[in-house]
Specification:
Blueprint (H helix, E strand, L loop, with lengths): L9 H5 L22 E8 L3 E9 L2 E7 L11 E10 L7 E3 L7 E17 L2 E8 L3 E8 L7 E6 L18 E4 L9 E6 L3 E8 L2 E5 L15 H6 L4 E9 L8 H8 L4 H10 L2 E11 L2 E2 L5 H10 L7 E2 L9 H10 L4 E6 L9 E9 L2 E12 L8 E10 L2 E8 L5 H12 L14 H6 L1 E2 L5 E6 L1 E2 L5 E2 L2 E5 L13
Parallel strand pairs: 10-19, 15-17
Antiparallel strand pairs: 1-2, 1-6, 2-3, 3-4, 4-9, 5-6, 6-7, 7-8, 8-9, 11-18, 12-13, 12-14, 14-15, 15-16, 18-19, 20-21, 20-23, 20-24, 21-22, 24-27, 25-26
Length: 484
């Protein structure tokens, strides 16, 4: 193997200060009696990526892969051609100090040997034999060979059980009810008072969608930390975003403030003021495999193996050896919303409400569509007094009463602004309101969903003593029906 020309590492050395970074500056000569090596380093820099390096003529020819090696031959990944690195970089792991080029944690993701099938200015085809990776890959530039932007393509077929990364999985929904009479065959989880979120992590990149498909990353940017934590482990997770109060109990009011933001800077500011946690209770896809057909117990085993534990995410416990009534009593004592009972042999059924999951609440809550509002009196003069609520039944949007308590001053002002922009002349309710209610009402387009807590339903189908809990931007009006 010819000695390394000094000029090949000139760019590499010019970008680094040997007094400030632990990265190797010199390059020993590779042994002459070995197969050429490759190394893939997971690099937690400003943006997580994987550095793919091939030994060639005494140095490491390198590409940065923002999403890692492709598993699916139908999907090519970007490979940014970067400067050659010294041969000794093959063993480098550690922290590049803040302020230095490529600052962040570097750790070896895979290493091994490779065979060269083609090495031309516009095409590099190799066969990898690694600890985690085996197979044929080809790299090629998107333009001229001098361009930095290349692509990497997997030439082998995907594994037989490989499933492409899903674009969207609808969440499975629980049925309201009572605890199962027998605990055999059931697992119990605490019910968390928050916003349901399906989180997609692929190649360190994160998407988070609400039940109705709205992007949640704008409001909750800290969910991106899951991408750095999982790295190359592609996964689709199901869980609940919650905001906790000073006692560690979920506070839906604090969560409301995080939901309504107009910019990323506002979201970042509110994230510091009201941090949230993503509590993950299911895994729906994992490293090229759909898991929705597996049983609850099998999915739970895969989820716990991920060891999701960070500043903003965790996996709450599941109980299969505790009677449901005991756990429900604990949830009441701790001020939690209730429990969810889940059949341990049940698959995950996307988008379906099923009796395989049963939610049992300590307090009664009901989602409702806002169809109008009334002005406040006395101290509330000039602002929002109450909102008129409806739920969908077979005849349309049925009026179920109004709510005027439970609002903070800020919530009243913000909701009034929203409602004034939705004004319409006619009532959206199919049921007839009383003359006094109609005379005072300002009707609106029924597009906003809120949630109230109440004591019971009256004989005429109205909510008794409702108290406002907040808007539910994650729910569609057509989904709102009376809870059993």
């Amino acid at each position: 193997v010819p000695k390394e020309p000094a000029s090949r590492l000139a760019t590499y050395r010019a970008k680094r200060d040997p007094k400030r970074t632990p990265e190797p500056m010199a390059s020993s000569s590779p042994p002459t009696d070995h197969d050429p090596i490759f190394v893939i380093q997971e690099h937690h820099a400003r943006a997580l990526h994987w550095d793919f390096r091939l030994e060639r003529d005494g140095a490491l020819v390198s590409w940065a892969l923002p999403k890692g090696l492709p598993v699916d031959p139908k999907v090519n990944h970007l490979a940014v051609h970067v400067e050659d690195h010294p041969f000794d970089y093959k063993d480098f792991e550690g922290e590049i100090p803040k302020g230095e080029y490529g600052a962040g944690l570097v750790r070896i993701w895979d290493r091994g040997t490779y065979e060269t099938e083609k090495w031309r200015p516009n095409e590099v085809m190799v066969v990898l034999h690694g600890e985690r990776t085996n197979g044929r890959f080809v790299l090629f530039p998107t333009g001229s060979p001098e361009d930095k932007d290349w692509m990497i393509h997997r030439m082998d077929d995907a594994p037989p059980d490989f499933v492409p990364f899903p674009k969207r999985i609808e969440p499975m929904l629980a049925t309201s009810g009572t605890l199962p009479r027998r605990s055999d065959g059931w697992a119990y989880e605490f019910k968390w008072d928050g916003v349901r979120a399906i989180v997609y992590v692929d190649g360190g990149r994160v998407r988070a969608l609400s039940r109705n498909g709205k992007d949640l990353l704008t409001s909750f940017p800290e969910l991106r930390q899951l991408g750095s934590f999982l790295g190359s482990t592609s996964a689709v997770l199901d869980g609940e975003i919650v905001a906790l109060d000073e006692t560690g109990r979920p506070d839906f009011g604090k969560l409301q403030r995080r939901l309504h933001v107009a910019s990323s800077s506002t979201a970042a500011k509110r994230a510091k003021e009201s941090p949230v946690s993503y509590l993950v209770f299911d895994v729906l896809y994992l490293v090229g495999r759909s898991t929705v057909e597996l049983s609850y117990d099998e999915r739970r085993h895969l989820l716990e193996a991920l060891q999701l534990a960070g500043d903003t995410f965790a996996t709450p416990p599941s109980f299969s050896d505790v009677p449901g009534r005991d756990l429900l009593a604990v949830s009441l004592e701790r001020g939690l919303e209730g429990v969810v009972a889940k059949r341990r042999d049940s698959p995950y059924t996307p988008g379906q409400r099923t009796s395989q999951w049963i939610k049992v609440k300590n307090v009664r809550t009901q989602e409702a569509v806002i169809g109008g509002w009334t002005e406040g009196r006395g101290e509330l003069a000039g602002t929002l007094g109450a909102v008129l609520l409806g739920i969908h039944d077979g005849d349309g949007l049925t009026y179920v009463g109004k709510v005027g308590t439970g609002f903070s001053d800020q919530a009243r002002a913000e909701l009034l602004t929203d409602l004034q922009g939705l004004a319409q002349d006619d009532s959206p309710f199919t049921s007839v309101l009383s003359r006094s209610e109609t005379a005072l009402a300002h009707f609106v387009r029924p597009v906003l969903v809120g949630e109230v807590q109440y004591t019971e339903w009256t004989h005429d189908g109205h909510l008794r003593h409702p108290s406002w809990r907040g808007l539910r931007a994650d729910k569609e009006p057509r989904e709102v029906v009376r809870e059993p």
